[in-house]
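Input record, target 12 of the design panel.
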């Protein structure tokens, strides 16, 4: 699949609409992202030529916010679109901002100012959320908690 040439000046990053709830959830499932706390009202979408090509949200939890569901359709990856969506989400969020990610994504988030923290440094709600994830370590899946201050 070839990477399209797009005019990033015409890329629109905007709040999701109610009728986009289904397509957003489908993208999250397709990407095998965390399917919890998915409320279309918390999402921003990147739309290009009438197509949603990237999504992301900030999940609101007691005592903290989590950047989540950041995904760009494979055809559009590597063009900086996820960074644009993340920047727009961060502009709307408070600090500190947390995220959970797989090991392969740690360098991407580090480039954008996030630091890996230890489990005991996380807010209580993320610790609670991480409990089932800790079981995944038994089969070799590593999930990291990251924070941006």
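The sequence produced for target 12 reads:
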């Amino acid at each position: 699949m070839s990477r399209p040439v797009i005019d990033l000046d015409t890329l629109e990053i905007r709040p999701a609409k109610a009728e986009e709830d289904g397509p957003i959830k489908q993208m999250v499932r397709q990407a095998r992202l965390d399917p919890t706390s998915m409320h279309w009202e918390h999402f921003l979408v990147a739309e290009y030529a009438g197509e949603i090509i990237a999504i992301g949200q900030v999940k609101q939890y007691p005592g903290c916010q989590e950047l989540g569901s950041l995904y760009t359709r494979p055809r559009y990856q590597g063009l900086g679109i996820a960074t644009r969506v993340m920047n727009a989400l961060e502009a709307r969020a408070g600090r500190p901002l947390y995220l959970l990610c797989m090991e392969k994504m740690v360098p991407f988030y580090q480039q954008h100012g996030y630091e890996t923290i230890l489990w005991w440094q996380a807010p209580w709600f993320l610790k609670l959320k991480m409990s089932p994830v800790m079981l995944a370590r038994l089969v070799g899946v590593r999930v990291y908690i990251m924070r941006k201050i």
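The first helix runs from residue 21 to 31.
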